[in-house]
Amino acid sequence: MMRPVAFSAIVTLLAFSGPATAQELPPAAERAVDFRKDIQPLFEQRCYACHGEANQINGLRLDRKKDALAGGHSGPAIVPGDSANSRLVHLLAGYRVKVVMPPAGPPLTPEQIGLVRAWIDQGADWPDDAVTAAPAPKRKGLDHWAWQPRSKPAPPEVKQADWARNPIDQFILAKLEKENLAPSPEADRATLLRRVSLDLTGLPPTPEQIDRFLADSSP
What we know:
The chain is an all-alpha fold. The protein contains nine helices and no strands.
């Protein structure tokens, strides 16, 4: 039977090791919040560089009502009426997340986060006629391919269409034709074996391996 003292100690440990609560977030402002006056300028200054017209990191865009309320790749970022469970607030406050927004510059003050919380708690009202200011300039490095959303462009037209075996070949051939270059002749079986052997073992194939490979007519 568990002793009362040991049981009390376990209860105490569980109490102090439980999940974080909304009490750890900066408190919501205790006043009415106006989107145009309080929230939109804050978004423009601190959020649009990464989540505006030019860039939408993680698929999140905060300069348009429809996109902001829809959220990004991680799901809705704004839960109207519930700031404590809104991912946007968690990111701004560094609460139960691995990253903090914005990633550059000083973090938002508790008062600024409190305004965002109050705005969300009050229903996240976003007037349809709220006009977005000029988009923030692109931050250096955000035009790198790794930050761009995935796309499936149509393969380009090429002159030697019979050479291309797949869409990737078409892109390669289009670049070659643009530079007035022709594809190299197709490698023979011995060359293919040498390439595979060097890639897999770092060594060229032995003469015996070459002979066996060339004698094998299977595909």
